# Entry
Amino acid sequence: MALNDPIELALILVFLAVFSILSYKKKLLDFEGIFIGNAVGLAAITYGPNPMVDFFAVVIFFVIGEIASNYPKKKHEQRTIWNVIGNSLPALAMLILIIAFPQNSFLLELAFFGAISAALADTLSSEIGYYSKKHPIMITTFKKVPKGTDGGVTRRGEFAALFGGLVIGIIYFFALLTGAAIPFYKIILYSLAVVLSGLVGSNIDSVFGAVFETRKMLDKTQVNLIGSTAGAIFCIIMGLLI
# Structure
């Protein structure tokens, strides 16, 4: 269901233009990264079953992710197209699949939110977890490792991941509450699946980071892709079970 209101569409296009200009001037994203970010936002508007809500979820992901990446007053390196692809491609893929399988749009939109939840959870886990007072532990061995080690997790990082999943889960909850004619208990269960997909995707990202990225068998983009995809798959499984 594409967005049909010309005023809302104009406002969104203005927002994307402002986002692009600020991201480029502040060196948050390179040109290609901005292009992909806009593509995900426009896909949410064009192909998302709930265009405004789906677009809002993408906006929240980028905004909170950038805030966390610069906390506190810490500038990260300019994000490239590969950073954005790693975090956004699975969500974009779910929206594209809605075109091919419109009869499964509800399940695929659930997976879209699961991918966004996992991407935001992983971003917050990495950025906020870095400031943990305790050393991270390797997720596969539970041994202490230096900060920044691939596969290292912290309690603060896990809570940050849960918060990221909760933010996207709440957005999805209100989307279902105001638009879907389904029982309330199922709305709770679907929303909980989105919340948990954040933790699932973030920790699978850490596992693959520990096993493969540390051995240079996968790079950061590929690991991020796997983590976000895991969030989407988790939501598909939970959606089928619910």
User: Anything to note?
Assistant: Helices lie at 6-25, 31-47, 51-69, 81-100, 105-129, 155-179, 184-213, 220-241. The mean pLDDT is 86. The longest strand covers residues 137-138.
